[in-house]
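Support reply, case 0932

Customer input (verbatim):
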Amino acid sequence: MIRTQDLTKTYGELHAIENLTLELDEGDLFGYIGPNGSGKTTTMRILATLLQPSWGEAYVCGHSIYTNPKEIRRLIGYMPDFFGVYDDMKVIEYLEFFAAAYRIKGPQRRKICDQVLELVDLGYKREAFVTSLSRGMTQRLGLARVLLHDPQVLLLDEPASGLDPRARIEIRGLLKELRKMGKTIMVSSHILPELADICNKVGIIERGQLLVSADVADVMRQVRQQPILVIAVAGDTDAAAKLIESTALVGSVEIRDGRIFATLAEGVNDYSDLPSQLIAAGHKLTLFKEDEINLETAFMALTKGITS
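Our regenerated output:
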């Protein structure tokens, strides 16, 4: 649905994005992660045909951004990080105005506006003035606007920026629902918890360069080659750590906050005998699990904190 090849945008000597190559399949929910100024917005504006790249190619739904931008605009819904609203309009009037711009006519226009309002849970605000909406409601209204023409691809630039915790949770739930509807979604953010539990693919960009683009599980494996076990015992932690370290299963051991963090030896994936060895030595296990690596850990491992 989205494919770029060596996509580059320069401003003088500054590379906003550099040789960006990525691919999204139909139904993907792609988390585009990077610090402010890393090139996320530039990428989305190029895909939305609002900005010309310096060189490189990009295709959206099989159409080139150079030769068929009008068709791309019919097939996408682009929601920028900041967008203006018409304060003197009611919510339903605001949506009908944009529905008319999409050439949706007659009774069908009101029907579609009501449907998208229900989808984003704003049906009860249809007669309210836009100026009376909270920040979270305004974001949902903006999402309703880009859904009016039933786009195949959604480009959402920081959709949860500035929202309170409840509003962010609601936006995440809405993105999950849109993916179930078959939409292909590219959503950018610099707040990692927003994306960790909803995306099936992620791309990490820094200073205009795409560091990684893969399934979430593949990114985690790239960051951590060997599993780390977290172990706690009721009793002598130091003795348990020495026993663990002496086994051929474990490469290194570290004690932090009363817990043992054991990194498995290279090539070892089966550690099922380790609990029985500890119990046989008289240790009572209170915790034994594989340490979880999350998106935030992966981001910190792969990036250097550099911005353009």
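We compared this against your earlier run and they match. Two observations from our side: The first strand starts at residue 2 and ends at 11. The chain has two domains: 2-214, 225-292. Please reopen the case if you see a mismatch on your end.
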